[in-house]
Amino acid sequence: MAHRWSPERERMGLLVIDMQEYFRPLASGIVEKVVALLDAFRRAERPVVFTAHGHRDPSVDGGMLARWWGEVILEGSFDHRLMDELSPREGERIIAKRRYSAFFGTDLEECLRNQGVEDLVICGVMTNLCCETTARDAFMRDFRVFFVHDATATADWELHLASLKNLAYGFAVVLGVEEVIDALAL
Predict the structure, then answer these.
(1) SS3 158
(2) How far are the Cα atoms of 60, 66, 91 from residue 69, in angstroms, in the given order?
(3) Residue 182: left if φ>0, alpha if ψ -120 to 50, beta else—which one?
(4) Which of 33, 63, 100, 149 is at a distance of 20 to 30 A from 123, taking alpha carbons?
(5) CA distances for 34 relative to 92, 124, 133, 165, 169, angstroms
(6) Residue 43 falls inside a structural domain
(7) Which domain covers residue 15, as residue numbers?
(8) Does some domain include residue 49?
(9) CATH value at residue 135
(10) Does residue 44 fall inside a structural domain?
């Protein structure tokens, strides 16, 4: 059963996950969609928060991610930078994270709550790793989660689709960019 409730404009916040240079090859097809979401949230004067995944010293802060993948994004490197097209504006937070979930070891929940966010819209990369894990964590923290299927991306279509199905079943309402923009216009 997929839930079909709509996000409420005055409760909405946008979380842009890991749209960094490292992920440009995966994210190239969604950059314009993420820009459209950013523009809409900014016009509606609703909160926007970014995440940037990175590590200072993988032997200390890499954990299982470093062991699993064998490489990590180093803070301060070109790969760590957010894509220029998606530069945060004054007042928009960048949450530094070191795990798949943007909530793990960060103040993201407090940041969102302080801005009145209850309906969390998630976009970015990778659908099946950081985006999905963050969406599940948001649900467990009692946010209403809205996952944008055409503004998230990953390495393989089947992984993308599997995540969307899992999230729609138990954690998030899956929407398209235009549906989110329409909700902001109400």
Answers:
(1) helix
(2) 15, 5, 33
(3) alpha
(4) 63
(5) 15, 7, 19, 21, 24
(6) yes
(7) 9-185
(8) yes
(9) 3.40.50.850
(10) yes
